[in-house]
Amino acid sequence: MKVAIVGAGLLGRLLAWRLLEAGHKVSLYDKDDKAGTQSAAFVAAAMLAPITEVLDAEAEIYQHGIAGLSIWPQWIKTLEETTSVPISYAINGSFLVSHRNDSGDYQRCVQRIQAHTSVDQSSVDELNRTQLETLEPELAMSFDKALYLRDEGCIDNLALLKALEKRIVDLGGQWFEGQGFDHLTDTVISDSFTDFDTVLDCRGTAAKVDAADLRGVRGEVIRVHAPEVNLSRPVRLMHPRYKLYIAPKPNNEYVIGATQIESESEHPVTVRSSLELLSALYSVHKGFSEAEILTQYARCRPAFSDNMPKIETLGSEGKLIRINGLYRHGYLLAPVVVNETLALFNLAPSTWPEIVSALTPEDALA
Ligand SMILES: Cc1cc2nc3c(=O)[nH]c(=O)nc-3n(C[C@H](O)[C@H](O)[C@H](O)COP(=O)(O)OP(=O)(O)OC[C@H]3O[C@@H](n4cnc5c(N)ncnc54)[C@H](O)[C@@H]3O)c2cc1C
């Protein structure tokens, strides 16, 4: 089939790659250039955190997140082998910690995770300082206990986006940079995409002009280079007002951020947010005091009102498919959502349901 994909962020690139590998012809359109700096995918911490996500999300996110985790290793391996771009990726656990004064918040989180019936409790451990010292020595300098979440990890999103770009181009995908579509309606499809069998709308938050139920949820992140800090796993610091996360990236770089803000503004990170984030960061590891601030971004995550991803077949004869709502778990869930979308290509468009739940029970068992 001839497929046009509008939006070359996380979903657009992954779908383009998988469709090309399956023998389809793909053209990719984005208002941005190939670096993709405008996407949520570019700024994301890209933690793969099915357990900590259940603290604020539906139970299905956990099951499908675990399914997503089982797909990533093969995808990363294939991309590394075909592009020679190294993609740092590890599922070797994450930590939840708090300072003594905030131990109430920490304890409540621990209890909620331990009481969650869907979470595999054999992957959750409470560590004392000696155990923490063995696993993550530099974290034990500031904390005497931690909750260790074995099934969590992190991906080097910048390397992943680069590898996808290379592979898409190598496979003959056509990439149109600086070519945006403000609306994707039946009229636009019939005027601009006559040559294509199907158009995939992967514009993230920009699709809200056509999707009434879609909203953006602001997130702020700061990337630092900290040669004096050696943390190998993501860390979440419990705090009454904000929960800081620290996601390690290659070469002693760390992406730090706090929880979401219900705002669609993408104005730059404020002084107050910077102060809060950076002072919380310094409280986790004193080595961050000499870190260089590399970038600061504010971007919105695309979310539907139920905070669940959705695949909608729209337009006449399934000519348009909108895939969206990956919210704050885009990296975690993308493999499942992408495979669910690809499954549609094995069916006749006339049999496509209007709304495909992006997360079906079968995926969770995959
Ligand atoms: C601060 C932050 C931290 C995050 N951390 C994590 C995390 O730790 N773990 C996790 O799993 N997920 C995380 N996410 C979520 C994840 O990044 C998103 O769920 C994911 O990127 C959504 O993918 P997408 O392809 O739908 O949208 P995007 O990645 O935003 O891509 C949308 C693309 O559409 C393009 N576009 C926009 N308008 C147009 C137009 N009019 N025409 C053509 N193209 C257009 C954009 O340029 C962009 O390339 C985070 C997100 C943010 C913002």
How does this structure look, described?
The protein contains eleven helices and 18 strands. It is α/β, with parallel strands linked by helices and 366 residues long. The chain has two domains: 201 residues, FAD/NAD(P)-binding domain, CATH 3.50.50.60; 145 residues, D-Amino Acid Oxidase, Chain A, domain 2. A hairpin with a 3-residue loop joins strand 13 and strand 14. Flavin-adenine dinucleotide (FAD) binds next to helix 1, helix 2, strand 11, strand 15 and helix 10.
Key attributes of the depicted protein:
single chain, alpha/beta, FAD/NAD(P)-binding domain, D-Amino Acid Oxidase, Chain A, domain 2, eight-stranded mixed beta sheet, 18 strands, 33% helix, globular, binds flavin-adenine dinucleotide
Give a short overview.
This protein has eleven helices and 18 strands. The chain is an alpha/beta fold. Helix 1 links the parallel strand 1 (2-6) and strand 2 (25-29).
Order of helices and strands: EHEHEHHEEHEHEEHEHEEEEEHEEEHEH
Tell me, what is the CATH class of the largest domain?
Alpha Beta
Q: Which distinct ligands sit in these coordinates?
A: flavin-adenine dinucleotide
Report the count of strand segments.
18
* Biggest β-sheet description: 8 strands, mixed
Number of helices: 11
What is the strand content?
15-25%
Kindly identify the CATH topology of the largest domain: FAD/NAD(P)-binding domain
- C-alpha end-to-end distance: 26 Å
The CATH architecture of the largest domain can be named as: 3-Layer(bba) Sandwich
- State the helicity in percent bands: 25-40%
Looking at the structure, what is the overall shape? Answer: globular
Could you give the order of strands across the largest sheet? 6-7-5-12-13-14-11-15
What Rg do the Cα atoms give? 21 Å
Structural class: alpha/beta
- Poorly predicted tracts of residues: none
Average of the residue pLDDT scores: 92
